[in-house]
Design goal:
Strand order of the largest sheet: 1-2
Largest sheet: 2 strands, antiparallel
Shape: globular
Order of helices and strands: HHEEHHEEHHHH
Radius of gyration: 17 Å
Helix content: 40-55%
Number of domains: 1
Distance between the termini: 29 Å
Oligomer: single chain
Number of helices: 8
Structural class: alpha+beta
Number of strands: 4
Length: 183
């Protein structure tokens, strides 16, 4: 399996959130990754982990990661132990890191967003995380409630307000021009 830069960031972002927040099961983790990716996209025009998020009833879900947790790829299986724990009438996913956290693949901006999210949601439970992603006019709400596109992909572009879109387009264009000059 080819381990990409985004894949390494995904694994290390999971590692970071599990280590730096309480009660970080699957639901909370998925919402933290969503906030990480969409906030970074809003600031730079790029996600951190490369995940696509879909509008499910309880909020945004990175479907590929959701599916992988059932049958982890070797790098994910090496990095984490996933164990289902019974709770009330259901179960919760307990995630235990097997590797140390490394920030070497993250930019300063990405680390700042990771730290801010971990601090803001340190003690939040799954239901609070669901509520936070369901706020009116956030990307999940726009797709799930406003457009009624249930189970559909949530475009990253929805994280950008119209007045911010022009600024982001300029950043992306400037980056493209720089890359052309470097070639």
């Amino acid at each position: 399996m080819l381990i990409t830069h985004e894949r390494e960031k995904l694994i290390q972002a999971i590692n970071f959130f599990v280590r730096n927040t309480k009660k970080c099961g699957k639901v909370k983790l998925f919402k933290l990754l969503y906030f990480l990716d969409f906030e970074h996209f809003k600031q730079t025009g790029r996600s951190v982990t490369g995940q696509n998020y879909f509008a499910w009833p309880k909020g945004p879900v990175p479907v590929d990661l959701n599916n992988e947790i059932e049958n982890p790829m070797p790098d994910m299986a090496e990095a984490f132990q996933f164990q289902k724990k019974p709770i009330k009438d259901s179960w919760a996913l307990d995630i235990t890191p097997n590797v140390e956290f490394s920030e070497r693949n993250f930019t300063k901006r990405e680390m700042m967003i990771l730290k801010n999210l971990a601090e803001e949601y340190k003690n939040a439970d799954a239901n609070s995380m669901i509520e936070a992603t369901h706020l009116e006019n956030l990307p999940w709400d726009k797709i799930y409630n406003q457009d009624r596109k249930k189970q559909q992909i949530i475009p990253y572009e929805l994280s950008i307000r119209n007045d911010e879109r022009d600024r982001l387009i300029k950043i992306v264009n400037d980056r493209q021009e720089l890359l052309e000059k470097l070639r």
